[in-house]
């Protein structure tokens, strides 16, 4: 294949990747966006193989590797529960980071195969590319492993604060920069392996103190890291498609991380330097002794059937209980009664960006009924019922009226402005941020205790 044709095909694949990102920005076009991305990747892989002089054995190994990967990916996609999607994404990020490290190692030990040797030494620009690719890849790898363990419940979601962690991180950061400089000056194995080892340690130490409430930011941040790692290795491989793809993923992940932080009224630096939150907290225990207004499924069904408008607020509790299908059925019952139904989505609801949108789309909730925070918040004052199913931190009024609260200033869904607030929860525990929610004890709040799916199904029976 000629160089001009290869460049043209890489350009086409890059355009398809951009169209894929555009499509994935909305549930209505997400399937089409996925298709664009798949076609673009197929073109990029085929073009890369066509431009290389490969023996039949190597081609066979590549095809075998693609086949194994396809089987693993297809099996994981079919078996994985939607509630486990955040940790699956984190696991995938770790593989991207590890791949970047392996490519950098291959380039270091077989530089002639990568055409990066000048006068018997790895050329200076390639040393920088390899160093950055390996460093970012290693940080992404261990950071994603920790994120996976936290999201999957195999490690506590609470922040794990190591003594003098900031001093350690600064020292390791300076050591990493020094090793990159030394490797640039003298490309020997010691400096290159130190770059990898220090980066692996940094990835571990950066993510382990981050609490569960900041996990959506961590997932999008690691997504960005994996993109930049791929872009750095793309330069080493002289592969235009990999550079384009990595830059797109890296920049989009960085933008998404900024949006997530803005949605939590947090700075990116404050998240990295030690997030707040965990899966348990002391303040919640105080709530046990306070009187709350408890209702039943029959009470909820009666109130909502006689309402003019209902705004549904889904959260992680809905995801855990797999209640999205029952929730959609409830919405259909209400619409049959002439009730206006809307769904309100907070940008950090769930455990990853877009988590709630994906679950509602899976349940075939109409896209035109789903609204983001900035578009729906003004509607709560006119709503008869705000139906909160598993969302806690993103509906906490302390973010508005308690300057002492850790989440003060965070944009939240102002559900308390509705005439009646219904809260489905298993108990009175705090949310993932470990912050008590005073909304539970307000006069217009009715608590519906129980499993989110079972409670919603009981409400549906009462409406029938």
Automatic annotation (TrEMBL):
Parts of the chain that traverse the membrane: 6-24, 36-52, 58-77, 89-110, 130-151, 163-185, 191-210, 217-235, 241-261
A molecular function GO annotation: NADP binding
Question: Which GO cellular component terms are attached?
Answer: plasma membrane
Q: Where is the signal peptide?
A: none
Q: Which EC numbers does the record give?
A: 7.1.1.1
Catalyses which reaction? NAD(+) + NADPH + H(+)(in) = NADH + NADP(+) + H(+)(out)
As for membrane topology, the entry says: Multi-pass membrane protein
Cellular localization per UniProt: Cell inner membrane
Which positions fall inside the NADP transhydrogenase beta-like domain? 8-461
- Keywords noted in UniProt: Cell inner membrane, Cell membrane, Membrane, NAD, NADP, Translocase, Transmembrane, Transmembrane helix
Tell me, in a sentence or two, what this protein's role is: The transhydrogenation between NADH and NADP is coupled to respiration and ATP hydrolysis and functions as a proton pump across the membrane.
Family membership noted in the UniProt record: Belongs to the PNT beta subunit family.
What quaternary structure, including any partners, is listed in this protein's UniProt entry?
Complex of an alpha and a beta chain; in Rhodospirillum, the alpha chain seems to be made of two subunits.
Q: What is this protein called?
A: NAD(P) transhydrogenase subunit beta
Its taxonomic path starts at: Bacteria, Pseudomonadati, Pseudomonadota, Alphaproteobacteria, Hyphomicrobiales
């Amino acid at each position: 294949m000629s160089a001009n044709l290869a460049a043209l095909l890489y350009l086409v694949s890059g355009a398809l990747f951009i169209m894929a990102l555009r499509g994935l920005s909305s549930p209505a076009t997400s399937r089409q966006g996925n298709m664009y991305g798949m076609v673009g990747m197929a073109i990029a892989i085929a073009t890369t193989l066509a431009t290389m002089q490969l023996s039949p054995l190597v081609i066979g190994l590549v095809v075998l590797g693609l086949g194994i990967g396809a089987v693993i990916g297809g099996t994981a996609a079919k078996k994985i529960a939607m509630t486990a999607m955040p940790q699956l994404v984190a696991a995938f990020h770790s593989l991207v980071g590890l791949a970047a490290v392996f490519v950098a190692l291959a380039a270091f030990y077989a530089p002639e195969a990568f055409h990066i040797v000048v006068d018997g030494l790895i050329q200076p620009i390639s040393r920088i590319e390899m160093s950055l690719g390996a460093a970012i890849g290693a940080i992404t790898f261990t950071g994603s492993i920790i994120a996976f363990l936290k999201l999957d419940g195999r490690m506590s979601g609470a922040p794990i604060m190591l003594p003098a962690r900031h001093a350690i991180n600064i020292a390791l950061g300076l050591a990493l920069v020094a090793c990159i400089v030394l490797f640039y000056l003298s490309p020997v194995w010691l400096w290159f392996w130190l770059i990898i080892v220090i980066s692996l340690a940094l990835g571990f130490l950066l993510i382990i103190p981050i609490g569960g409430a900041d996990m959506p930011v961590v997932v999008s941040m690691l997504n960005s890291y994996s993109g930049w790692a791929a872009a750095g290795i793309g330069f080493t491989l002289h592969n235009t498609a990999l550079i384009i793809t990595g830059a797109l993923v890296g920049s989009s992940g960085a933008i998404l991380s900024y949006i997530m932080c803005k949605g939590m009224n947090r700075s990116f630096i404050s998240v990295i330097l030690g997030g707040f939150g965990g899966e348990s907290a002391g303040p919640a225990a105080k709530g046990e002794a306070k009187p709350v207004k408890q209702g039943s499924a029959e009470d909820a069904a009666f109130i909502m059937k006689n309402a003019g408008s209902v705004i549904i607020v889904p959260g992680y509790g809905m995801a855990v209980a797999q209640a999205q299908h029952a929730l959609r059925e409830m919405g259909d019952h209400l619409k049959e009664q002439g009730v206006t139904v809307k769904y309100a989505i907070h940008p950090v609801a769930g455990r990853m960006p877009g988590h709630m949108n994906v679950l509602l789309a899976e349940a075939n909730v109409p896209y035109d009924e789903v609204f983001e925070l900035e578009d729906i918040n003004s509607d709560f004052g006119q709503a008869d019922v705000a139906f909160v199913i598993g969302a806690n931190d993103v509906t906490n009024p302390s973010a508005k009226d308690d300057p002492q609260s850790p989440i003060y200033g965070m944009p939240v869904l102002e559900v308390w402005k509705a005439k009646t607030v219904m809260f489905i929860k298993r108990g009175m525990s705090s949310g993932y941020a470990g912050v008590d929610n005073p909304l539970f004890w307000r006069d217009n709040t009715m608590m519906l205790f129980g499993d989110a799916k079972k409670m919603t199904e009981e409400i549906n029976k009462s409406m029938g």
